[in-house]
Amino acid sequence: MRLKKNIVYIIAGAVFWAVLAGCSMIDEDQSDCGGEANVNYELELITNMSIELRTKLSSELDKDVAEALRDYLKNIFTDFAHDVDLSFYDTKGDSSRLHHDQHIMDANQKSYTLYLPMRDYMHLAAANLVNNSMVSLTDDDFCHPSKLQQQQTDTISPHNTGLFTARQPMSLKEGKDQTFNVRLYMANCAVALVVDPQGYDVQGMKVIANGFASGFNINDSTYAFGGKPFVVKADELEVKNNRQLCFCSVNFPSREPKQTRTVIETEEPFMAQPGEESLWEFRVYVPNHSAAKSRAEATFTETVLQVREPIRAGELMIIKCQAREDGSVTTANPDVGVSVTLDWKPGGVYHPEL
């Protein structure tokens, strides 16, 4: 399904710094003298959330699931910036940080005047990090390695906030009234699994997800993959009607599919084909209640839902599935492959906490 965009703007702002000592009227080199600039920080939320909820959860039965997801994601897909971290870097040499400031904004609109020594800067900004216990800003003393880094553990919880970043060159010129418009874009996303039990016993179902980036390089606007494998625990939401189960995770995006082209004899000689490989996964575990004699002997039915459609920053993707008698789940989504392991025991590759 093509991602449709709803754009919500907020204008937020930055900082005030005192001019550096040593700047005088008789200096021949005035490059360190300060200059004023107006800076508008515009946080842009580009998301398909409303469209995805309306499209995937349109029936009367789905109404309570949609309500639960809206409540769970209200602090993720939001036009409100609680905090902002601002860094200004040298554009030469080792790209070291020249100025740094942090603000608790708690507002959707503010205006500030920026006062900095006149020179060229690379400016990086990140918003909503203070209340996000899963992600932190690291290696930010220098421009190029500055990144949003997820906790490096086998299993993590979903991100607590919607994360936004910006990068923009700034050149402060002497004798000019300057205005800079800095736009911050969302860096994380959300995936949800909706399960119809169909009358079968799925008590104790647990869901994890994997295949996502572990960090985001702010200056390059690229995601970091590789390293130690990890999974994200999907939170089970409280659904009023008790006729469906819903699990949701907030995380960084997945990889994009490999681009392939096929030459055919038409007026359009190249056609882009969708990727066939799995890009990310849901793993669903249902206890085998009748077979378990003790915790050590407990087994589960494991269903791996292999999603071939990428999940992108700012996106909510909902996968709907149905439970089966053997504890597995299935889906009619053609972009999702399904594999089932009966009598699965904990201790596999990802060591999920079940």
Structure write-up:
The protein is mainly beta and 354 residues long. The protein is built from two helices and 25 strands. Strands 1, 2, 3, 4, 5, 6, 10 and 11 form an eight-stranded mixed sheet that branches. It has a six-stranded mixed sheet with strand order 9-16-13-21-22-25, with no helix packed on it. Strands 17-18-12-23-24 form a five-stranded mixed sheet, covered by helices on one side. The model is unreliable at 1-30, 262-267 and 269-274 (pLDDT under 50).
What is the gist of this entry?
The strands form 5 sheets. Strands 1, 2, 3, 4, 5, 6, 10 and 11 form an 8-stranded mixed beta sheet that branches. A 6-stranded mixed beta sheet has the order 9-16-13-21-22-25, with no helix packed on it. By secondary structure, it is mainly beta.
